[in-house]
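Workshop exercise sheet. Pairs work together: one partner reads the sequence aloud, the other fills in the structure field after running the prediction. Swap roles for the next sheet.
Pair: D.N. / O.F.
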Amino acid sequence: MAKQTLIVQDTPITVIKRGEEDYICLTDMLQAKDGDFFVTDWLRNRNTLEYIGIWEKVYNPGFNYGEFATIRNQAGLNSFKISVKEFVSRTNAISLQAKAGRYGGTYAHKDIAFEFAMWISPEFKIFIVKEFQRLKEEEQKAIGWSAKRELSKINYHIHTDAVRANLVPDEVDAYHSSLIYAEEADVLNVALFGMTAKEWREANPGKKGNMRDYATINQLICLSNMENLNAVFINEGIPQRDRLHKLNKIAIQQMTVLEEVGNRKLLK
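Structure field:
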């Protein structure tokens, strides 16, 4: 189970995935409320139950609304108290869950968790929503980077096929073939990053992987384009030195455009 952590007003709060939905730990959030309170204190509130009931009706076709009505009618009585586990068991609710063991605690769907945050304080709700949005933006950036990295890897096969078909003689052994492939990879590296793979490793001894693993999204977009172009240039028989010069000019042009587009989006 994927786990992430929000830090809201110095309070660490666990976020987990349930299918495609985010669930936030109410137990963690409760640490931000002054005094001795429990999630059950919030759940026994009639307004809380009304909100959860409407949410479940909209999103959960399996919700036992009849059993929920019985629970809701008891709300407001001094003797009324219900745990999250009992509420979920009786109503088949999906908005809440009580987990034991690893990542244990009471969790709520983000929609419900934000309402719980309001119960803690309006200020806390504002900050947790803000931090959650930041987390989602970082998540989307990571997804975009991974997609561009995979695209670059796929396009690299087009590049290596062109190298194999045009630059690797049939009689060359595997070792010397690998040198040719590496040399052509460095044509792209030098054109875009300004250094060979060996030079990057020597300059970054503490980093794992290669320079492409640390590239920005814009660099990966540019690299993907350059792999296709270099494959075309190789098939056309253009000498390596001339290809390097052409690719470097293209890299500068494309990176300039990509960075300008990014800056325009930031200004909006």
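Discussion prompt: The beta strands are 3-8, 11-18, 21-25, 96-99, 105-109. What would you look at next?
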